[in-house]
Every structure is written in structure tokens, then in C-alpha cells.
Amino acid sequence: MTKKLTGIAASDGIAVAPAYLLVEPDLSFSKTSVSDVESELARFKDAIKVSTAEVEKIRDSAKKSLGEDEAQVFEAHLMILNDPEFTGAIETEIKDKKINSEAALDGTAQKFIAIFEGMTDNAYMQQRAADVRDVSKRIMAHLLGKELPNPATIDHEVIVVAHDLTPSDTAQLNKKFVKGFVTDIGGRTAHSAIMARSLELPAVVGTESITKDVVNGQTLVVDGLNGDAVIKPSDEQIADYKQKSEAFLKQKAEWDKLKNEPSVTADGKQFTIAANIGTPADMQGVNENGAEAVGLYRTEFLYMNSKDFPTEEDQFEAYKEVIEGMNGKQVVIRTMDIGGDKHLDYWDLPEEMNPFLGVRAIRLSLQNEEIFRTQLRALLRASAYGKLAIMFPMIGTLGELRKAKSILNEEKTKLTQKGTKVGSDLQVGMMIEVPAAAVLADQFAKEVDFFSIGTNDLIQYSMAADRGNDNVSYLYQPANPSVLRLIKHTIDAAHENGIWCGMCGEAAGDNIMFPILLSMGLDEYSMSATSILRIRSLMKKLNTEDIKELANKACYVSETAEENEKLVNDLMKEVNK
Ligand code: PEP
Ligand code: MG
User: Fold this and answer.
1) Is 501 a catalytic residue?
2) Among residues 191, 489, 501, 555, which one is catalytic?
3) pTM metric for this prediction
């Protein structure tokens, strides 16, 4: 039977393909004693043998689809599977204690993990704990006769279905075969959704029950335009979705014609439309979509995609590649925003009750100065290769901003004293994403070269609604007058103090928000590369004279987000007449 689920439209486009469940099976077991030790040992050795064959296969396909670097982790897994110290210890447990393989494996793995995690002065060895955990999971699955999902081995077109996708899961998806994804939880501005947009994968998040409703291999439609997922669609539905997809692609082809055109309004006013990126590999999308700048490079993905802290040299190379790739156009690089929903396997940070309100972004950088200084040196060196702007995330107080700037200046002085070249027109700015900073924007504006408004967080912190929690997504209201007043105050404060103001939160590329922001005089609009041409086309239709009053109405006359949505929809009806 066909079943339609409604979630949140997280990334444009429509795809139809078999479902691939990226869901871990239940690996719980009971500890039992065994009388026939020999056959238990044989059972264990068998699980090692099939696990080894499986990892070899995964390694080979990961090499082909994701590259040598991504495949490295599986070499480490094979080493553990072949390590007599590890497997021997498990066999000894089975023999001596006469317990089942599952209990012996679990006990031994826990011991190895504890030893590796205890090596706090050796990050490399600490990382081995994660490898032991992964390998043990695989052996356990074989012992229990269950199947683990292996995304790296996907070799045919699928739609990935998961409870949630972490940013690193998303980074590992091979676009050649993965045609879209659907999740149980998540919001439009969760990082997995943002990455789906940069990968141009149709996605629907927050369906609540997709992992329970769909079975591996069943045909699934993901409609990222409306936020629907359809399980076992009828032939008629498939035909309808194909038609809708074609219409969308036709519309996209129209937008594509604006690729090399400037971003101007109907009355000839020019603004900057920039792209948000997560890795240098995203530069292809930046150029293909005619971005006029990079308005946000989320550098934490560089940390998340490595097995250990990236060195100053690694970082320098990545930043230089992006800066040079923009040929003199501005690149805003944000210092790392780890914490919240972004973690590093190799950085064992204390668990927090409320990670989004905890030691995140600049707070983490200021508490770990050496890591911060390494990043700043890499950025400063890269600034010699083009037009760089460095941006600090999650600034809440002037004290934090001043501290971050003074560390940056110290590193700059040290580099120039050594004769290292640093860009002469380097700009230093901050994100406005903590409401406290938006309120004091007039004071912050005196100490930076620019602002970039991060609405993803500004909204979550203003409305006290977790950006990744679909149960409170009704509160996630970009067009709420309270949020708009904070935005307007920030833009006005920037202009009164002679600095420019951009926006790199998802609201910059939103059809409802864009006319309001244009009316407020926002200077730069930075968004997922795939939104650029749609917004350029919208900008072309709008006359700044005609929308002069929109900002004030939206902030001070309207009482709700819905009223503002209607205001813009009515305006667009007039414009499209
Ligand atoms: C934001 O908060 O709007 C933003 C752009 O940063 P991130 O989405 O990475 O938190
Ligand atoms: Mg943010």
C-alpha cells in the first residue's frame, strides 16, 4: 500500500529510487555460558572471517567511490581484525570463562577502548578507540546474524533513509548513487539539511516515522519541494512526480541563464549574492551558480573530515585553494564552529546538558587557544593570495570579540616580524547570531569591518526553539517581527557606523525573507550555491522604490510571521502580474 509522509522540505528537487535504510540494528545480547568451547571458538572465528571479507569489500568500494583517504579507516579496521592481541584475548575469555562469544567480545572490546581512551597525551592512539568500537560492532552483528548498513558499498541508485544524518554521515554519501534522503528528525537549518543543499540532493527531514514505515529496497519518492516522502507510489503517482520534477528542472534551466549576470534589482541597484561552502570541493557549485563571493566558509568541516586536527599547513592549503579559486572576489572564512551538533571523533570534549548553549564556536576557540592560533596563522598566511575576510562565530560579548581580535593581531604581528606576507586588505568581522550581539550591534559595529547575520542560530536563540527539533519547528519563524526587528537593528547599526552587513543564515535565500531583507538594505546575501540563481531571478523582479515601506511594515505593523508571509505573497502577486 502506498503511504505518504509529510516532513520538512530541506533541499529542492524530486527523486524516485529504492530506499536504503541507514539504520543500526539492535545489537543487544545475553551473556550465557557455553559447554562446547570448541564450537563456540569456531563460531567466533567464523564471525572474524566474514567481518574481514566484508571490510575488505567496503574498503575496495570506498577507494573507488570516495577516494584513498576515506578508505584509510577501513585499513585500520582490518588491522584490528587481524590483531592476535585483540582476537586472542577474546578467544582466551571464551576458553577460560566458558562464556559465549558476544560476552567475550564485549568485555574485551570495552577493555581495549578504555586503554586507548586513557591515552590522553596521544591523540592518534585515542582515535583507535573509535576503530575498536566500529570493528566490534561489525563482529557482533555477524554473531547475532544481523546486518549493518554499509553506505560506502552502495553501488546502485538509492534514497537514503535514516533516523537522523550527522554531518559526517552526509559527507560520506556518494552523490553518484545517493539520489536523495529522508529522515525521522531534523529541521531545515540542521547541518545535514544544509549539506544536502550544497550537494544538490533532494531531501525531506522530520517525517517522524520513515525508518519504521519503509523497508529496504521499497520504491520511495522524495519530494524536497513540498516536503513529502511517498512509500510504494502507484504508477500514476510516479508519473505525476516525474512531471513535477521536469517542471522544476525547466524552471532551473531558466534561472541558469542568469549565471553570468550581475545581481541587480529591477531599478538597477546592485547587491552581492554569495555562496556558503563547507569544503574547497564546494567551489565547483560556487562557480557553476555564478556566486559573486563566498560569504561563509564553514571551516569546521575541515576538522570534521580529518582523522586528527588538521595541521596549519593542511588548513593553509585549503583556505588558499578557496581564496585563489575566487580570483580576487571576496571570501569570508569563519573560524571553526565546533560544538552544538558538530563533534570531532578525536576531540573528547565533556558532555553538556545543552550543547547549543554550551562551549561552542568562539567559546571553544578561546578556551583552546593553541588550536585557535593555529587556525588564525593558516588564515593570515592564506590572506596573501586574494581578498580574505575572517569572521568569528557566536560572539556574544564585546569581551569575546576583543579577545579574539587581540589573539589574531598577536599572530599577525609574529608572522610579519618573521617576514611572512599577510594580505593588506584583510577584513575582520563577526557573525550576529546571538541575540545579545544583535541588540548591541551599534557597539559591536565600531570594532569590526562587517557583520554577517546568522539567522539559523539567531532564530533558534531568539525563539528558544532548537533548530534541529521538528517538534518545535512551528516556532522557527524567520519572518516573526521580533526576529525581523533584530535583523533591521543590526543592518541599521552597521550602516550608521559605515560598515557592510551580510547574511549567511538560510533566510538570505528564502523567497519570503528576501524582499524584506532587500527593503532593509542588506548588502550581501550568502546562501547555499543552489539558491543563488533563484534569488538573482527574484531580485531582478523587485524594484527597491516599490518595496521601500515593506521593512517597516514587517517589523512594526505586522504582529505575526503569517502576516508577513501574506504581505510578501501579496506583493509578489503584484510583481508577477
Ligand atoms: C547561522 O547560524 O545562521 C549560520 C550561518 O551558521 P551555522 O548554520 O553554521 O550555525
Ligand atoms: Mg550559526
Assistant:
1) no
2) 191
3) 0.79
